[in-house]
Amino acid sequence: MKLSRREALNAMAMGAVATRLAAAPQDAAEQDRARRMRWWHEAKFGMFIHWGLYSVLGRHEWVMENEGIPVPEYEKLADRFRPKPNAARDWARLAKQAGMKYMVMTSKHHEGFCLFDSKNTNYCAPKQACGRDLVKEYFDAARAEGLRVGLYYSLMDWHHPDGARCGRDEAARERFVEYTQGLVGELCTNYGKLDILWYDVAWPLDAEGWESAEMNRMVREVQPDIILNNRSKLPEDFGTPEQRIVPEKEGRAWEACMTMNDSWGYHAADDAWKSPKEIVRNLVRCARDGGNYLLNIGPKPDGSIPEESVRILTAVGRWMDRNGHTIYGAERCRVNRSQFANFTRKGNTLYIHVHFWPGEELSIGGLSSEVKSARLLATGKNVPFQQERFRVRFTGLPARAPDSPVSVLAVECASEPRQDTMGIRDDRPRT
Ligand code: GLC
Q1: What is this structure's pTM?
Q2: Ligand 1 mean position to 158 CA, how many Å?
């Protein structure tokens, strides 16, 4: 019997994984996941990059579909997509400065244009006006800054003739799965170590239709340390709440991805920018609830980063320089009630991230662990405190916020800090 290349790879992959998991399949898989994801959990903060032909039009990455642009007309954008060399260096530098530890770039968005070299299609940057492998440049840039490298890959494809047809025609599905796995294979084999593969939109197929289990097995065979998201219609390693911060159930890993304005791709007129304070608050919330924060930039067609994004990320980076240690490696924190602060935790240390500074005194209700000491990170000074049964009052604080956009108090507790919010109701102090 003669096997196709894909079947042969598949068989190899299955063999290797089966051997690795033979002992105690569930435990071994969990242990392997914990090993692969250690750096990712520690990292907390990453940069998402949406870049493609849509950047030329500058009206959101869904412009092809939303404005009903015919394929031949859209394809011509490839003549105008000639980014400056090594644009990714600036992204990587900015990511590093902002305190981000990894990057995830669109290798192919829904428009179907590949930023990488491919034997499977001519609709790719090196074979069009651009004439360069932008994924290679991106890898080099990220590595030069010591950042981990991830690639986004859209399964949905508006350009390929089988991209939609595969949903209703078996022969088209087989061709398109072959094409998809060919491209994914190239991404996994042509650039060295790939840390994250970030699938997107599986329309019009389900996991069975995409043959996702086989595809992901092949990916892991080539990249044994890789981390996969949940958008090939299989749960895999982490969940991807989009534009919102909602922890996954049952302790599953998750990463909230978010835009800085309202578009992922470059949108020249979109001025709905988040403030550095909103970004820091979001990052803190992710870290508090055991998640990561993947924050997007949408570079212009020449690869330069919109000025507003630079301004915002630079401010966030200055804050991270001073306070990043309260974020990286933070553990799930069971303190969350306040209208002026968020919280992170490392061991028995509670970090109170105050975004609306109340003045010389601030109180946290329901802290059930004994407070040993408190320190204001911006000044390094100890903070006096009084602890009652359901309230800790921190006193002698500056009248105005000592740091911007968020000021942090480090509170050493005798045990893991927890908040007993029901206790206050049941047993409200009367005197
Ligand atoms: C959505 C959008 C897409 C964007 C992605 C990021 O799925 O279709 O444009 O790339 O979210 O999570």
Answers
A1: 0.93
A2: 14
Whichever domain contains 360, its CATH number is 2.60.40.1180
Tell me the pairing of strands 148-154 and 196-200. Answer: parallel
Cα(200) to ligand 1 centroid in Å equals 7
Structurally, the chain folds into a number of domains equal to: 2
Residue 15 lies in a domain: no
Question: Domain for residue 216, yes or no?
Answer: yes
H/E stretch holding 365? strand 362-365
Among 273, 302, 326, give the residue marking a domain's end: 326
| Whether residues 52 and 162 fall in one domain | yes
Residue by residue, pLDDT tens for the chain (431 residues) are: 445 555 555 555 555 555 555 557 789 999 999 999 999 999 999 999 999 999 999 999 999 999 999 999 999 999 999 999 999 999 999 999 999 999 999 999 999 999 999 999 999 999 999 999 999 999 999 999 999 999 999 999 999 999 999 999 999 999 999 999 999 999 999 999 999 999 999 999 999 999 999 999 999 999 999 999 999 999 999 999 999 999 999 899 999 999 999 999 999 999 999 999 999 999 999 999 999 999 999 999 999 999 999 999 999 999 999 999 999 999 999 999 999 999 999 999 999 999 999 999 999 999 999 999 999 999 999 999 999 989 999 999 999 999 999 999 999 999 999 998 887 788 877 87
Taking the C-alpha atoms of residue 293 and residue 325, their distance in angstroms, rounded to an integer, is 16
Residue 3 DSSP one-character state: P
- 250, 30 in Cβ contact below 8 A? no
Range of the domain at 272: 36-326
Closest ligand 1 atom to residue 152 Cα is 10
